[in-house]
Design brief:
With 153 residues, the chain is an all-alpha fold. It has seven helices and no strands.
Length: 153
């Protein structure tokens, strides 16, 4: 208690604040937020409108690509398998090569490595259980009224 009172009397409130421990930093912390704020303040009206136009064009392009994806898939993106997503990317890139892969990966929520693995290994191969899957679907949706579990199947 005595040391707190002594520090307060000598240094004021600043004396009661905790001191940094360890070695001092050689490189000062980067402040991204301050730089962004400074850039936004310095923009003129014309530059603001140009930036807004660029953002709207990017949004329009993203929506156009989403529309292409939905046309290709015919169902919601969340229900697609990774193999099907890779096939959709190949189809879109065949029609419109200017579309960036990075944008397609982001919109389809597909990992880059998964895409390249599918292209290299899986897209050319046929599904060896395709007949069995078709039979299971036929039984499940036809005879069973969607009530069979895994054992009756």
């Amino acid at each position: 208690m005595y040391s707190w009172i002594h520090k307060f009397n000598e240094e004021g409130i600043a004396g009661l604040k905790p001191n940094q421990k360890g070695y001092p930093r050689k490189i000062p912390k980067k402040t991204k937020h301050i730089k962004k704020r400074a850039q936004k303040i310095e923009l003129s009206e014309k530059e603001k409108y140009e930036e807004k136009i660029l953002q709207q064009e990017a949004k329009l392009e993203r929506l156009r690509i989403e529309n292409l994806i939905l046309k290709k898939s015919g169902c919601p993106i969340s229900t697609l398998s990774n193999r099907r997503k890779s096939q959709i990317i190949l189809d879109i890139r065949a029609e419109e090569p200017q579309v960036k892969l990075k944008t397609l990966f982001k919109l389809l929520n597909l990992n880059r490595k998964t895409y390249y693995d599918n292209i290299k290994n899986r897209l050319d191969k046929t599904d060896k259980y395709a007949k069995v899957k078709e039979k299971i679907k036929e039984i499940y949706y036809g005879e069973a009224d969607e009530t069979y579990g895994y054992r009756p199947m």
